[in-house]
């Protein structure tokens, strides 16, 4: 471990391990032995956020260093603590305060070249904007998705509470641009029941310490990750809600999908009013026996502890009158679970969301590293070996799920965009799993609850699927306008069950006074980003032109100018550049406010028609 008193030391150490060992940032951050942290602790949120933001800008930082021997000027090759160097460069060029705290040799080397670094950074950003991108084309801004936990509250109540928070937060920011209707609007999702859609800006205050999160009334869960439980519960339409049964969540930690499945099962099982309630012996309390059990399997000890804690937070006790589904966490490897175990005799459905590459998580630090390394053949070969290993494990897990004799529904999902982990696994499972009874075999089924979702699977290719089979698969692409992370969902059903499936569409979105989301936040972000990018590019061009003119003037002055005059000229030039940057910032803020007002007016006009 490199000793350093810099306030960025922890962030630098975390980034070093990520860059050198190519391990996932989350795995490192919460590994008890990583980055010099004491056993059982993890980096604080600020440190983790700083590393994420540095990785987000790593490509453009490297581009800046490649100009005019800047890398050599700051001694990049001789710096042992590359992570700390990158963090300081991010703070200086793209951080909130555009400055570096603390001291040290690395900072002194950077500060010596500060003016040139800033100039090159402005030029690089301007070039990217001119090419149609931002500081980093992989960065996407999604709405803040909030799943209402219907085991504790309902959509209307939670929507009212969050609406008040939105208005109150906007009023206290002091920024006029955040008081418009766009940033205080709230919607329901068009595909997932009980999923609220809030402005991207709400992520700044909607965090795990929020009262609604701590009470278990809401879950911070991305839209696409809600598809797995939704398809398992409602993929067959009305048929799924006829008979209560048990479920298995094969790889359940941290428990978001498990708790979502519990809420959905609770809503479709209902209460059997024909059966009298039984009283417990020794007291007058009513015994509310759950009608369905969800067995939540988790192999990792640390993740199992997280799972147990999450279930206590998100699922009421099974003997509660408010709940008719029980979640039973099991510390085990799903691959070692015996399908013939009598405990699982009533299991009819399995949710399998196994470990994957995570390549669909758009703003993941690991994805930023993939974009940086896309020209490195060695890294690509290593990644392909990892994906191959993952796909082998995923296939084994899927075939094991299909081997349970009484199971007639299996959902297999990943947050990967690679065909090898998706269509290829599905295709192999279909061809390698055989049964004695042809009517008892497995086939893909297009989920009724997501029939209006446009993006489907890929035919041919690695998986070799037919067009009809590919149309049964669900894909999400955060890079192509889906406003959610990349995801893949497949729904396997026994052939004998398909014949009884509901042919009609089940309306999944409850009637609500809250309007349905139809891309309003995305449209607003595009308009503001376009305006801001245009202004920044124009202002950067003016700054570069101004510096070029000053350089020519200094050159014409020649050696006849004294040192004192040169100093005065440099100070005057720097002062003028600072004024230009300030004016550009103020102009951008004015345009944002004006754009927000225009969007609101246009929306009001449209609704009036």
Automatic annotation (TrEMBL):
Give the record's keywords alphabetically: Methyltransferase, RNA-binding, S-adenosyl-L-methionine, Transferase
- The segment annotated Disordered runs over 552-609
Question: What is this protein's record name?
Answer: SAM-dependent MTase RsmB/NOP-type domain-containing protein
Pinpoint the SAM-dependent MTase RsmB/NOP-type domain residues. Answer: 134-495
**Entry's family note:** Belongs to the class I-like SAM-binding methyltransferase superfamily. RsmB/NOP family.
Spell out the Polar residues composition-biased ranges: 552-564
Where does the chain bind S-adenosyl-L-methionine?
251-257, 298, 333, 353
Source superkingdom:
Eukaryota
Spell out the Basic and acidic residues composition-biased ranges. Answer: 587-596
For molecular function, the Gene Ontology terms on record are: methyltransferase activity; RNA binding
Q: According to the entry, what is the taxonomic lineage of the organism?
A: Eukaryota, Sar, Stramenopiles, Ochrophyta, Bacillariophyta
For biological process, the GO terms are: methylation
- Record's compositionally biased regions (Basic residues): 570-584
Task: Identify which residues the record assigns to the active site.
Answer: 415 (nucleophile)
Transmembrane regions listed in the UniProt entry: none
């Amino acid at each position: 471990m490199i000793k350093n008193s810099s306030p960025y030391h922890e962030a630098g150490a975390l980034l070093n391990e990520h860059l050198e060992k190519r391990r996932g940032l989350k795995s490192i951050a919460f590994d008890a032995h990583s980055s010099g942290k004491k056993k059982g602790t993890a980096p604080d949120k600020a440190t983790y956020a700083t590393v994420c933001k540095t990785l987000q800008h790593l490509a453009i930082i490297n581009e800046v260093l490649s100009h005019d021997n800047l890398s050599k000027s700051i001694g990049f090759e001789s710096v042992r603590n590359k992570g700390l160097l990158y963090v300081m460069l991010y703070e200086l060029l793209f951080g909130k305060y555009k400055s570096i705290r603390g001291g040290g040799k690395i900072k002194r080397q950077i500060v010596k070249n500060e003016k040139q670094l800033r100039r090159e950074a402005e030029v690089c950003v301007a070039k990217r904007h001119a090419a149609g991108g931002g500081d980093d084309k992989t960065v996407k801004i999604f709405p803040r998705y909030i799943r209402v936990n219907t085991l504790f509250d309902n959509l209307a109540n939670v929507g009212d509470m969050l609406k008040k928070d939105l208005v109150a937060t906007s009023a206290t920011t002091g920024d006029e641009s955040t008081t418009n209707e766009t940033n205080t609007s709230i919607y329901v999702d068009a595909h997932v029941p009980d999923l609220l859609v809030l402005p991207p800006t709400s992520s700044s205050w909607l965090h795990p310490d929020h009262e609604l999160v701590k009470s278990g009334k809401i879950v911070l869960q991305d839209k696409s990750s809600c598809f797995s439980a939704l398809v398992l519960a409602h993929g067959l339409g009305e048929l799924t809600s006829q008979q209560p049964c048990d479920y298995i969540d094969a790889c359940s930690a941290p428990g978001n999908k498990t708790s979502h499945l519990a809420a959905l099962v609770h809503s479709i099982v209902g209460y059997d009013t024909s059966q009298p309630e039984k009283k417990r012996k020794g007291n007058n309390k009513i015994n509310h026996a759950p009608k369905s059990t969800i067995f939540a399997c988790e192999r990792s000890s640390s993740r199992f502890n997280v799972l147990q804690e999450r279930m206590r937070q998100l699922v009421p006790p099974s003997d509660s009158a408010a709940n008719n589904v029980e979640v039973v966490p099991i510390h085990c490897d799903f691959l070692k679970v015996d399908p013939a175990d009598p405990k699982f005799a009533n299991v009819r459905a399995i949710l399998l969301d196994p470990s994957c590459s995570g390549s669909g998580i758009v703003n993941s630090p690991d994805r930023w590293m993939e974009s940086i390394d896309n020209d490195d053949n060695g890294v690509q070969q290593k990644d392909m070996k990892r994906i191959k290993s993952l796909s082998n494990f995923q296939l084994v897990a899927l075939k094991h799920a299909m081997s349970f004799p009484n199971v007639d529904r299996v959902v297999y999902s990943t947050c990967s965009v690679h065909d090898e982990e998706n269509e290829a696994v599905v295709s192999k499972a279909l061809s390698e799993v055989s049964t004695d009874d042809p009517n008892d075999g497995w086939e893909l089924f297009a989920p009724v609850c997501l029939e209006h979702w446009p993006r489907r699977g890929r035919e041919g290719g690695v998986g070799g699927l037919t067009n009809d089979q590919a149309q049964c698969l669900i894909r999400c692409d955060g890079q192509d306008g889906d406003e959610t992370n990349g995801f893949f969902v497949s729904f396997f059903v026994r052939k004998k069950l398909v014949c009884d499936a509901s042919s009609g569409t089940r309306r999944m979105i409850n009637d609500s006074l809250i309007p349905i989301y139809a891309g309003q936040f995305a449209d607003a972000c595009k308009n503001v980003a376009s305006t801001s990018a245009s202004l920044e590019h124009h202002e950067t061009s003016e700054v570069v032109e101004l510096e070029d003119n000053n350089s020519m003037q200094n050159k014409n002055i020649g050696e006849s100018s004294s040192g004192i005059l040169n100093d005065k000229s440099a100070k005057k030039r720097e002062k003028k550049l600072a004024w230009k940057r300030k004016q550009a910032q103020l102009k951008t803020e004015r345009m944002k406010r004006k754009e927000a007002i225009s969007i609101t007016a246009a929306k009001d006009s449209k609704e009036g028609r």
